[in-house]
Amino acid sequence: MNNxxxxxxxxxxxxxxxxxxxxxxxxxxxxxxxxxxxxxEFLGDSILNFIIAHELFKMYPDVDEGDLSRLRASLVNGDxxxxxxxxxxxxxxxxxxxxxxRSGGHxxxxxxxxxxxxxxxxxxxxxxxxxxxxxxxxxxxxxxxNIPDISxxxxxxxxxxxLLQSRQRALPVYEVVAITGQAHSQTFEVSCTIEQLGxxxxxxxxxxxxxxxxAAQVAFTKVEQQFQPVK
Amino acid sequence: MNNxxxxxxxxxxxxxxxxxxxxxxxxxxxxxxxxxxxxxEFLGDSILNFIIAHELFKMYPDVDEGDLSRLRASLVNGDxxxxxxxxxxxxxxxxxxxxxxRSGGHxxxxxxxxxxxxxxxxxxxxxxxxxxxxxxxxxxxxxxxNIPDISxxxxxxxxxxxLLQSRQRALPVYEVVAITGQAHSQTFEVSCTIEQLGxxxxxxxxxxxxxxxxAAQVAFTKVEQQFQPVK
Lengths: 231, 231
Fold this sequence. Notes:
Two copies of one chain form a homodimer.
Chain A lengths: L5 H8 L6 H7 L11 H22 L5 H11 L2 H10 L10 H5 L6 H18 L2 H11 L1 H5 L10 H11 L6 E8 L6 E8 L4 E7 L2 H20 L4
Antiparallel strand pairs in A: 1-2, 2-3
Helix pairs in contact in A: 2-7, 3-4, 3-7, 5-7, 7-8, 10-11
């Protein structure tokens, strides 16, 4: 093992463990044995989801629960956890089994992302809710300061529908216009028609659903252009 | 409205709200207007999942995260929340829109279950984490004292596989032996064969997966009988 000493990570986290074995457990991948971080990850995931839910609840007093859910999903997911993990250079501190180590497991995003959650769980076990909450808010500080626009979190079909409804227009009609390719690698072509506005858009995808979303995105842009006042 | 006064519910919960409007919001279904309980339900759901996760984490120090997940899912779900709601007679306190009221919405299980979560969210907003945790543990006291056996939470295929592995036996082989019925209401018949033990079991179901589970359950019983010492 060429792991860096955990004290360096503790310094970055701004938290020193009373029980150092919890910290070690949080950084032990299941490939390294039975005393690994999976239980702490289960716990940490539930804490993280709660803390972020509460932050969003306070930050967006007028947003409905569907949007709160989407906002949370945009903050608590494998990619964002991997980014936080990269910021902490967690890969340098993770204990892996021999096989995982050989295959570069410490660089694997999912392993690093899981460790962020297990550390959160370990800090909670080692301290109290308020201390853990402060750590989560510190880890998420940048992300909470740069939350994406709610409207962009919705899928194109939903966005198109809401845009049309806000202008009291009839909803779009989707139709499959072509299916090509072999049974297991078919391509769907779907049209999205908004008759009232004279708009027809098409989209292609590996499934009907995906093709509809592509078509809806194209239609959305066309509708926006129509609605925009000419300057 | 013939709702009972909220003070009666407060007494049952053992919690008196500082901000009574939060309590009212928690008991207002979306059919009754925009100031409804959906945001509090979103928050309460995340608190509840965390608190139960932590209880199970402490109660089962040797159980892996897969079993912890299954245990939690057996405690936090629509049915168990509806049971808790029935114990509190929540239906008598929920504010519904006119349409929902006419169609008996206060007796609807899902509406009642959601209210348990929104009350948890409201108590958290009105007090602090520790107060909310105590309330959740009170609501879940019976359920936490009567947690189902972990092995029964697994699906039959998983249980059969684990039973055979524990005895170092080869795994079962599943095969579709018949598909009958029209395209949209097919019945699958699947066999589950454990050659080493001379066991063949069959099961039927509306999907291949369901038929496999039925066959696995039958096979499981047969394997258990073989493994049982003759008394």
